[in-house]
Design goal:
- The protein has 279 residues and is α/β, with parallel strands linked by helices.
- It contains nine helices and twelve strands.
- It has a six-stranded mixed sheet with strand order 2-1-3-5-6-4, with helices on both faces.
- Helix 1 crosses helix 8 and helix 4 packs across helix 5.
- The longest helix has 16 residues.
Length: 279
């Protein structure tokens, strides 16, 4: 990776607290090298109470913008000058762009990343069949927005706390909320199952879900990418379902941000996956 930062270098970064776990520097650094761009992408550890100050400093410091990770995505909605429609619907900002006049625009690329990864890894998936979503957090909102825009008419959501799932009803008239104890039956007839919870992530318990009712050709997507193959994906693969891991969403959500920061729409390739997994 490049080490020299010059006066001409275009700079962006990722803000989070903590931020050392983020793989975005490896992702964007790979693309900067691949395309020979005079740019840099740096981790920016920012405490929650300092996020407003940090965002407002971006133009003064000459930054092209910044990605946001936990816990800043929701806070940023009220801190930027403009919020893109998808970010408003998703209820979160994960990309802040510095405009030529120094104002800040908040965008959400998670919805794009989810759908692009799904289409790349499961090209035969069709939007005509019902989708079952496990979880009702911020990631779930972005996934639902992506599915609505893709033309899915029936979305089923089940969450351990029903009230959180019911709060998503504003996103889609056809959204159905099912009690947690009905999650197994919610798979019947689905063409896609998406786990948006942290269940199955390293250090977390596995997702307790019986796949018996899930059609054999349904796509199973887990947005967790550590481990790359969760218990859910392993069980789905064993029964023959097409599976999509969470790394693709991470990689594809970076594309619109990289384009906004550095002017190129980068490619997501097997070599990129190998690089990010190895760092």
């Amino acid at each position: 990776m490049k080490s020299a930062i010059r006066g001409t270098t275009r700079i962006a970064g990722v803000m989070g607290w903590p931020v050392k776990h983020s793989r975005s520097p490896q992702l964007h650094g790979y693309w900067l090298d691949q395309y020979g761009i005079d740019g840099a992408y740096v981790p920016l550890p920012v405490e929650p109470e300092k996020i407003a100050t940090a965002l407002r400093a971006l133009p003064a410091l000459g930054f092209a913008g910044a990605n946001l990770t936990v816990p800043h995505k929701t806070l940023a909605l009220s801190l930027v000058d403009r919020v893109a429609p998808v970010a408003r619907r998703a209820g979160a900002v994960n990309t802040v762009i510095v405009a030529s006049d120094g104002t800040l625009e908040g965008r959400n690329t998670d919805a794009f990343g989810f759908l692009a990864a799904l289409q790349q890894s499961a090209p035969d998936w069709k939007a005509e069949r019902p989708v079952t979503i496990i979880g009702a957090g911020g990631a779930s909102r972005a996934v639902i927005v992506a599915l609505i825009d893709a033309g899915v008419s029936e979305i089923r959501v089940t969450n351990r706390t029903r009230a959180r799932a019911e709060a998503l009803a504003e996103l889609a008239p056809g959204l159905r909320v099912l009690d947690w104890d009905k999650r197994h039956a919610a798979l019947e007839g689905a063409g896609l199952l998406v786990n948006t919870t942290t269940l199955g992530m390293g250090g977390q318990p596995p997702l307790d879900l019986d796949l018996k009712a899930l059609p054999a050709d349904a796509v199973v997507n887990d947005i967790v990418y550590s481990p790359l193959e969760t218990t859910l994906l392993a069980a789905a693969r064993t029964r023959g379902n097409p599976v999509v891991d969470g790394l693709g969403m991470l990689l594809h959500q970076g594309r619109p941000a990289f384009h906004a920061f550095f002017g190129i729409d980068p490619a997501v390739t097997p070599a990129l996956r190998t690089h990010v997994l190895g760092t």
